[in-house]
Amino acid sequence: MFNSKHYVPILKWKRAEQSALEILKIEDKKLMTPLIQFVMPKLTTKESLGKTDDEKFKQIILKFQEKIKKIPEEIIEAWGLTPIFVDVSLLYTTELKVEIFENLVLKEKETGIFLIPVLHLSDNLKIIKTVENHKHGLCLRLVCADLDDLNELDKKIKSFFTSIRLSEKDIDLLVDIKDIGENSDKFFKYMNLSKGIPNLLKWRTFTFASGAFHEDLSKCKRDEENHIQRFDWINWIHQIQDKSFPRKPSFSDYAIQYPIYKESTQFFAPTTSIKYTLENDWFILKGEKQKFELYLANAKLLVEDSRFYGENFSNGDKFIFERANHYEKYIKDPTTKGTGSTENWLTAGINHHLTLVVNQISNLP
To answer: Between 271 and 183, whose confidence is greater?
Structure first.
């Protein structure tokens, strides 16, 4: 399907991420295959009122089930009919994971969407059997615990193959070590361990994923220049130059988000900060909670900075440029509104990041 000069961004399937994919330029979409992770919805205050925890849990399940039938349409609108990895690991129950895979496979036949189900070695056999003979193959996603004992990994992979009717050539291999922060030792430890994965050259594709974006922006300061090193990218670039490595992996990251999904963060209002990806770091323009005018003020600072890629670089950059130009008008008359929502700014930041990464990868020697 693809080689090391390809990008696999890992994104939660929420509105901001969907919009970021939808507004990508066609030529950039051809250079990536997203991995989307379905997440449980949250209840509104009204929906939660007077309910026990058990009742809330059941309500969340029902709310997600109502959304399942709409997901194929969302994928087509945001991504089209080209390959996309779909991961159900963040859903609450085995039954729900099976249900969504069953619905997606059914809709795949009706709509022509090109889905590649993502499985884990720890998955329940019911989940595996739902997609065991999938026509587009599968993706096997390994995590750190899988690589800690290579002899045990060999046994688990052999067991995995007894559960499905496919071989390595039908399966995309993704090693995902998640959060590395500034810990390069962790990155290289697991990258080196991945050399011992059985039949590494036979898998359809090989991708290595990590994330270096911080859990929050508490260490960033207002009115100061803040930078977070893109160690996921920096380390990957260093690794693919290692000629002793048997197979160069494709690059995968979590864009401008923390790689470990914490459901509790859905209930807290974030600061109105701009997260802007540069060549080797993220430029953070710190805002404050509920101070939406700071989006405009920081956008103006950003577009006046020599490191801004320009309004024509991506649709995300175009949005930033337009909001920066709106700053003076808004300051004179705040009733004009137009600051953009947190969702809008997340969309812009992700879209810029995706565009930059595919350009970085395509320009590698």
So the answer is: 271
pLDDT above 70 for 264: no
- What interhelical angle do 342-362 and 15-22 show, nearest 10? 40
Number of H helices, E strands in the chain: 14, 11
Spatial CB neighbours of 361, under 8 Å, sequence gap ≥ 6: 5, 6, 7, 31, 251
Q: What length is written for the chain? A: 365
The pairs formed by 128-134 with CB atoms below 8 angstroms and a separation of 24 or more are 128/160, 128/163, 128/164, 129/163, 130/98, 130/101, 130/102, 130/105, 131/101, 131/105, 132/163, 132/164, 132/165, 132/166, 133/164, 133/165, 133/166, 134/105, 134/166
Domains, the chain, ranges and CATH?
10-262 (3.20.20)
- 273-320: per-residue pLDDT in tens? 999 999 999 999 999 988 999 999 999 999 999 999 999 999 999 999
Over residues 75-104, the pLDDT tens digits come to 999 999 999 999 999 999 999 999 999 999
Give the span between the Cα atoms of 187 and 310, in whole angstroms.
33
